[in-house]
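Page 47, continued from p. 46.
Same chain as before, 396 aa.
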Amino acid sequence: MLTVSCKDKLLSKFYIFWLTVQLALPIISTDIYLPSLKEISYFFATDFVHSQDSLTLYFTIFGIVQLFYGSVSDCLGRKPVFALSLTIYIIACLLCAFATTIQVFNIGRCLQAIGSGGAVLVFATIRDLYEGKQAAKIIAYMSAVVAISPLIGPILGSVIQASLSWQWNFIVLAIVGSVLLLLSGTILETKQKTAFSLSFLKQIFSHYQCLFTSKQYLRHALSAAFAFGALFAYVSGAPYVFLNLMEYSSIEFGLIFAVATMGYVLGAFINGQLISRYGTEKLGRVGIFFLVSAGLAMPLFCYLYPLNALAIILPQLVCEFGISVVISTSIAQALQPIPHCAGTGMALIGFFRFIVAGGSSYVAILSENLTTLPLALTVLGCALLSFLFAIKDSTP
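Result:
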């Protein structure tokens, strides 16, 4: 590993800012166009559910590509892989913006997921540059900033939709990607190139073998994945519920979506404040309690108060608080027994999270009917599975 000392504070802050935007890009790439899904379905003369296929495709492909980016960057270095991923991302955004059929649009979203996959290298880059408490402090700062992006994305997207058109959401993303690509020429290379050899492949295989034989790693990784699935069931189902069933405007949807997301931001903040005092295990139990309680409440409220926005928003606000805590504590506990292959462990966790997110987003919109119950029941199902993996017997 090549350790780089960032003596120039201005350069260091610029680099961290660049990495933070790169880390937030996959989330903003989805949240920014959620308020426009109804208009997209009209534009392509398709039904609302088929326009949401782009969400499922994005989550699934983004989960898969994470498994490859880490290994490739270990061989070629971080900088060229960042540049390649951003180039793919820009092309994909423009393809989405100028698509004339829903099929071309979905291909663009698939390519966008591949381009966004470079974000998985951000934490690896931080580990290249910093160590110990300094690395932890920077990661905490970056995570706090990224936690706000689900608040910004839908509001920004709804404003763009109302003032311009849905295509401009992707043009704006292409501009952001272009700026990141231009600035990538000034960033440091933090990883020495290594030869792609048989021994390297053997090391990767041994790392995955270690991960799949660690019960503690697997159960906490899957608990985090299903908590993430509960989050993205809402991300996928909310546009259909609020825009199509309840007929809110794109501006109103952006604000409604942001309200529930405040629970996630609050959870991230409280977790950061209390984790050193109470530890991951205790806080994890608290997160699971809020996640399951809100998951149980949502179907009940939706049954008692059909087509009432508060029946979804209030439970989801609490649910996202629990999701935020569960994800962070579960990942920390999953990585605890595998310090020698933490990078591969994070890549596999990312794979689990987005594969589950792809499945939950598909199920949440599978039943196109006049009720909010499919969304609520999908959130509940993911919450219960997260709970079951969290409490599963952890004896080695």
